[in-house]
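Repro case for the chain-ordering regression, as requested:
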Amino acid sequence: MAPLAERSLEDAVDRFEAACDGRIIYIGLPWKAFEEFLAALNDYWESIKGRSLPESVEYEISKMFEIRRRLLSQPLNPSNQESGIADLLSMTRADLDESFIEARDQVISKLMVLTAEDHVAADLVQAVTQKFPSFKFEGKSIAILVLDGRELKDAIKKQLVFPGASSVKYLGLSDLRKSEMSDIAFIFGAPEQRLWHTIALEERRKMVSWLYSAPAAKTTINVSWVGHPSFDLSNYRIWPEAALSSAKTYGPTTFAIKHDPTGPVIKPIEPTSDPDGVPAILFQFASGGNIAFHPTLGPKPQVIGQGEMDPVIESVSPNRLKQGAVLIFRSDDSDISFIRETARKSLGSKKYDLAKAASDSFKKSVTDAKDALNDAASMLESAGISSPEYYLQVASVGSWIGAQNYKVAKCIADTFGFAFSEGEYQLINELRVHHRQAGMKANEMIRQSLIKNREWEDVIDRGLHVRLNLGEVGSRQIAMIETIGTVKRLVSKLGVAESVPDPHVAKSELVVEISS
Amino acid sequence: MVSKAPPSWFKALSDLGLEMASQPNRMVGERFPVVVLSVPTGQFATWAISNGALSSIPKIVQPESFPSRCVAWDNSLEQVGEVTVEKVLEDGRLVPKIGGVKYLHGIASVRLPDNAPEDFGQGRVLTKKERDRLNSQLKSLGLATKTKPWFMGWAEQCLSPIVIIGRGQEYILNQLHQLHRSEFARDWLNPLSIILTSVESGKITDADQILRVPISVLSPEASRDNEWIQQISPRLVIYTRWSYFEERPPGAFTGVPTIVISNRRVESSIDCAAATNHIKVNPAEWLTTANQLPRGILIRYLEPPVVSSEVYDPNDDWGEEF
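-- result from build under test --
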């Protein structure tokens, strides 16, 4: 085996070669029994959706859609416990209005038929060698893109057999992106379906386009069956002027299914607006809750992006955020003491205290002026400050240090008639620099935790909410942006998430807790 | 087993680096070439590009007024460093004089930006052993002769450096070390590139040593926060990510041929694709490598205007925590 450094170079060589000369193969498989189940589920859903239903009926329907999702995401045999069919069939029938019973029973009967069959793609070796008799799995490394979740992974591991393969890895989307190159990678259906469904389809396709344009294996085999959307490689081009690798296509690329039921969705909680707040950009999360930022002032959103191999945490302008971006944010002040202590150590206690006193004095003078003057905002505006309300409100926010620009700080001080020297500004600025450095240190510690435990990535891809408990640097939450709008929000609430799912109240599957 | 011959992608990226670095740096009022390069992995792409770029002829902009605060070979310290360049009359013609030494055949020097730190370029870049190595290696390539000693060629390379902007400098440098150590891939690098990239790596990632080494790997912050670095005129600038290029101060390295690497495995490549879709133009005719790239490596060509250097003016943010 090549030493680690050498292997990394070889891996990069393989990656370039797979992108330049790799093969993409598509195999489409008809599956009548599953098609009939989908049709029955669609008919049932169309007849019942939008109605007020008992909880037991809603639960039963969600289980039906879960079965559909599992059988579409990987070739799991319907008789496998993890498909969820056996559980559903053993459940007490939900208390349903008589007019819907026939449609529901149709779904149940189709599921009973399904359990007698193997999944149409259960034998992948046969599915491939039927089309390519000379194709060899012996001695090859194989990567299989599977739905996340340990039980599902274990179930599919037990079921799929590749005689003679040198290795078989079962990976979620984010792990496959980072894994070493394999000889063969299997993708089931349209990979964009693994991402949160309310993100625009075109955007989701771009997010998974690397599977075809920077493949994880020399040969990528896309296996689809009825229920999957039609396959067209050109959908995954992010540079429309340049074609991706040519693909070999076998079997139907479009399945004759009339409908694609999407199932129940989570209803968002309407955000509240603060009449005395400043105009802010509102981001609502896929998992519920929201957060707002001023377009230019105040805290900046922090996003988790993908580095070459590992995640990176970056501060970005709120104007640059799009649906699907993954935000990491604080939900409490649990990290403040870490920031302050770290900054105090690096700046020195004496200087830190002097700087803090200068900052507190500046802020107090502003809040005193605000309280004493009726027209503080218009005075600032007349003096040329473009966001007077912001500065009046932010002065009472504990975490604000002071105006970043000396001219702005001096202008505020002169307008309200209190003394403020350049020396004080320099002290405040030093305090800011050291707090920022402490923040960067905290961010790096958070990043290392995100690298150590990658469970959060696939959780976020499914539109769920992640809470991180990170010891001395406090706690953080991660969520994906679902919609972007505007709102008026108090300055003290900028950058603070509201209405996020409470793990003690919300359905447990919406929140995943990860501890460092 | 990987071949000792450079793979087509490595060769194509080296050719691109050479072609771009060979382009003259553009002036205010002109437009400068930016190639956005879409690759399946960012790994080793930087060094493949640099490999070609280092073979280009250094672009030295000599000072126009004297005496001038410059960077050049400092004979007394046997390093490239800060010097005062004068012009003195010798046999009826003006020749540069640095310290007590007159250079009758001329010597490369570039003016230090006015706001460069007082203590620019402290410390030793080359050990005695490294100087001896460079002397013998550059001689073996015919790049050091009796009339042009090795240090002149070395200084020219340093004064017209390749600048790489990216986070994870160790990660980037580690790739260079892998290429150097690899039994098969070492032969992918051209001999000059091997010689020039063999200096102690700590200097390569130290922003204060820019212009003292042929290649500098800087963080986006180092180039953003040091106005004087932005005013330097390298041979080629390579950004390892679209966002580093997009968020650079407008005047940073303006006019310098630039390559922006967009790794398709990271999501920012989607932003890059969207951001460049409507500003791309047809590649310049001189960019012949654009038509010779293997499938899987794509480029977009941009021609932004050269702007004068500006002071970076961030918006107020509250900055207590981050």
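Ordering looks correct now. The radius of gyration of chain A is 28 Å.
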